[in-house]
Amino acid sequence: xxxxLSEEAFAYGREAQRALGAAGGDELVKRAEADPAxxxxxxxxxxxxxxxxxxxxxxxxxxxxxxxxxxxxxxYWAAPYxxxxxxARPAGSDGLVVVADRxxxxxxxxxxxxxxxxxxxxxxxxxTAVPSDARARDTAFVTALDVRSEGEADVRxxxxxxxxxxxxxxxMLDRAMELTREHVLVRRQFGKPLADKQGVQFxxxxxxxxxxxxxxxxxxxxxxxxxxxxxAVHDALALRLAVIEAAETVLRTCHLLHGAVGFCDEAALSxxxxxxQPLRRLPYGVSGTGARLARSIGRDGLTGLFSExxx
Amino acid sequence: xxxxxxxxxxxxxELVARHVPPDFxxxxxxxxxxxxxxxxFSRTLADRSLLCIAWPKEYGGGDAxxxxxxxxREEMWAHHEPRGAQYxxxxxVGPTIMRHGTDAQxxxxxxxxxxxxxxxxxxxxxxxxxxxxxxxxxxxxRDGDGWRVTGQKVWTSYAGMAQWCFLLAxxxxxxxxxxxxxxxxxxxxxxxxxxxxxxxxxGPHHLNEVFITDLKVTEADVLGEVDEGxxxxxxxxxxxxVGIARYARCERLLMEAPRALGDAWDELPEExxxxxxxxxxxxxxxxxxxxxxxxxxxxxxxRPGDAAGYRIAVTRLDQDSAEVLMDIAAHAPRESARxxxxxxxxxxRYAHASTVASGSIDVQRILLARHILGTA
Lengths: 311, 376
Description:
By secondary structure, chain A is α+β, with helices and mostly antiparallel strands. Chain A has a domain at about 155-310: Butyryl-CoA Dehydrogenase, subunit A, domain 3 (Up-down Bundle). Chain A is built from twelve helices and seven strands. Chain A has helices spanning about 5-20, 25-35, 40-50, 60-75, 85, 135-140, 155-185, 200-225, 230-260, 270-275, 275-280, 285-295; strands at about 95-100, 105, 115-120, 125-130, 145-150, 190, 190-195. Chain B is built from eleven helices and eight strands. In chain B, a hairpin with a 2-residue loop joins strand 2 and strand 3 (about 145-155). The chains are: A alpha+beta (about 300), B alpha+beta (about 375). The interface between A and B is large, with 41 and 45 residues.
């Protein structure tokens, strides 16, 4: 595994981030929330310009890295579109959603697309979003899925479907940290910038260690999918557990250090925080994901320096 | 890491299996055989150019890559450091002498380290100078063509068995406290040096006090420039911070747990299985962060916050995994899993020290904060 994404993928992600910024940046999610019907139209033309639909993340390792970088860029702006799910789509489908065994849901409201679903146990289905009149502000575009069973899933679908949304959440953590850094450097209390206070610094460092660690696990899990490794689902679950735990730490810290302004609609953090929820809770939150990981790896543990000890 | 590293890992495991008892828990126990095992094993590694594998061949090394060096660090720490105190000479004393030593110092000190024949200790911490190292009071006063050193060091690992000390002392007073410090390479068998062991939970021969009374040192004992020791110290600490692959021992013990517990593994509370899986994820995270630091170092793209970030992550892993392992070990059969239980208990004792060893975790946080905030 290469430690870093390829230079091309990195540059692609940066270009996507810039393009999303130019297309509205933080305003995109606000516009989508105000007018849910505009959700697709806000970003799909840009995706065409970026060549996103030409990416072949299932067939080409470089394209998979580009897909990860694009998913991360969408997270950075909390762009209101299930880009990771769309990029993970199998042939003949509009997108791939990993769902819970019971009450399948996804953040796919209002898109009029035909989804493929997979459960962690490998059940495959085809699904459409159940129409709902719930406000996007309350649901973050999550809606129930009407799933029709379609046999067994390819384990690669499960791994890919878990990993790419983690890159989106990672992008949200990138941005939350960036916003908080800027805030504590500017915001003055007791006559000094917040950043001068060691209590503030230490909270920031602990959150950054979480974010940086997840970035490495995201790279590893992506490589595991690229390499077609048998344990790719274990690696994806390990990443998912780490990233949703990191999100707890990072976003709690970022809210604390922003103070009251962090809850306000004028603060980008507030939108990132709310729109991170579907990524953190679906298909399972921390407890469910941890239990699934433990069950999945059994006595064998994760592949690593000593995996042959119990293999 | 590649096939070469994989073959090296296999070779090291074979050597450990052949030369180190399965219940070995480090060189610093009540049993003097453990120290002898470590000294003998260091020479075994040296005979194969594995002890100082990443050193240049001219100094007795193997000219290996940083990745092969990492494999050695992982395997040694995972197996309770069968090199004993030798890792200090290998990891940072030798490399620092290579960078700052005179030709004579290199000739004197590097070959014995490469052969595994000499133990070094680090004379940095003092009763009133821990994390705030620059406030140290050990003083070297000019005396003819040399100096006379007087002072007290504390928490000095391996001082009781070391032949040499990498000693930091104040030689003058500058505008800043970091100025006027000098590194001396001094013999520990000088009558002016007295070592008193400190009994502690990590073992009876680990930590010590060192009292230095009017120790005569010469120009030839100075490493680097007089009064410029602080720069050398920063390098030493940077070497030290990535020198111990703590994640490797955590991972080995976690992966061994299901086998050690046997049927009892299935009876563990589901929540404990979950914590175990979570710790394995954190092992991978710490290992990848270490690799990321090494990758950047090997490309000359070192970012000061990276090593600090890794240290924070691996320290947390060390302590969190120790707690999980102790909970798991409590369910292990007392007789058949005796070695596992002892290894876990030893890991737990050492994990307490990881927040203060090689610079406290809060110092790492300060370094990382400067990096994040751009105030470095």
